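Lecture 7 notes: from sequence to structure.

We start with a single chain of 219 residues. Read the sequence below before looking at the structure.
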Amino acid sequence: MIVVLGRPALGPSLPTPAAGQGTGLAGLSVAICVAASAAGAKVELVGSVGDDAAGDEVIIRLARAGVGHAAVLRDPSARTGVVGRDSLDDGDDIEPVDGGLEMSGREPRLDAEDVGLGLGYLLGYGVLVIAERLPQDVMAVALEAARYHQASVVAVVPEGEDAGLTLGEDATVLEAPREAGAAFTGMVGRFVAALDAGVSAADAFSAATKGSGWEAAAE
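Now the structure, written as tokens:
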């Protein structure tokens, strides 16, 4: 099983390669979840949303996309991120946010206690994907859980940045381009699915880049 750490949102539909349809979800974490699920892996998202209508919709759409959400926490003091109106159906009582993933109100909390609680729900995972820049104390909790489960660690960081914390010699750091489109997230999904299946990191990355078309997109 693969665990992805990051906060989901509603937004312009992410492609779902297996179904050829959109998910109506936004954010790097859910894009990786959807891609890994499409590659045949069991995936759980550890994150948080607001305790609001948009948060309810995120949970529904994660389920439709085949992504586990047992460890997605609800923060009653925050609002779930919503990007643009094209992800919403007529009649949705959800207010979109223009211009990116900025939150209308406080961003859903994702602190060390939350991450520890979320990861505590999940047993037997083989890969932990850190898909969001988080404070060091949060990262430390996640990495300790990965060590306990002997899980491979993959950190996806913005282009030109480092992970901000020592991840361990066996961890993989992937740089996300400024516009991390379907080719990149598809590659990450294939890569982590192969890792979870026991393929070596080098072989998994080689197969993922070729299978996703990321090599061609990156040239």
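The chain has seven helices and ten strands. Keep this in mind for problem set 3.
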